């Protein structure tokens, strides 16, 4: 099994690295890292068959690059003035790519084919509801842009403490509805249940997760509950980063940058949460973590300490157990598994 890890290229990293996740006698090990794609700033990327789409940086411009793999070949890049996007999503059936740009406040939709990637439409978030925290005072900061289970589009805006829903009609983004988190929440990433009537928002600045019931036909929202991802007595700086839901809809996982941990919640029958575990990432600043298709093997990357940690996941209990730590990988911020 192959694993791809990319991130910042401010120190020693040259781009995206490929590693082997080897399973022998039921035990896993991660190793054999090689730089497979040389790229400036691939902080978030997605793999689609023999293609790879990545955030990229080119001097004073930011955008996305589209690669063929095996052998590696750059198909094309699309750049715009300013910082790179923070998030990239993909719909393989529609051949669409979505990006959210934290710094420029743009949400963008791209189309791709064998010839490359091209811009379809983009909108800019205004500073309509800026929160009270220092990170929010300079404007809107969309950090996520991707699809809901029904194919609508949704963004999370850290600056505005908002979750915004869109539709792509005739090649244009149309705003549909907005849900506001509590002031200072710092809305960052979001996941949905399969029934598409509940969503769970990760609050970067508040170190919280908000459970919301909603109706996509009427755009009515109900704030169900909010939970802290870190201990009540933890007072040092922390920022929630990635959030993932298991495919069976029973567990939620969030990474904590500062507390340097992954928090595990059980999703109860009424969609509220119960704390299951907090486990160290054995490094500093775990921006991302991910799992293989079986959701048994989990890898977390620690951006500031240039290392990764491998866990084994118990699907019944939801808990993580450390298998391997201190795996050297530079400036990792994104993890992608691949069977190829």
Automatic annotation (TrEMBL):
SUPFAM superfamilies: C-terminal (heme d1) domain of cytochrome cd1-nitrite reductase. It comes from the Bacteria. Its EC number is 3.1.1.-. It holds the Pfam family Lactonase. InterPro entries: Cycloisomerase_2, Haem_d1_sf, Lactonase_7-beta_prop, WD40/YVTN_repeat-like_dom_sf. The keyword Hydrolase applies. Belongs to the cycloisomerase 2 family. This is Lactonase family protein. It comes from Lactobacillus jensenii.
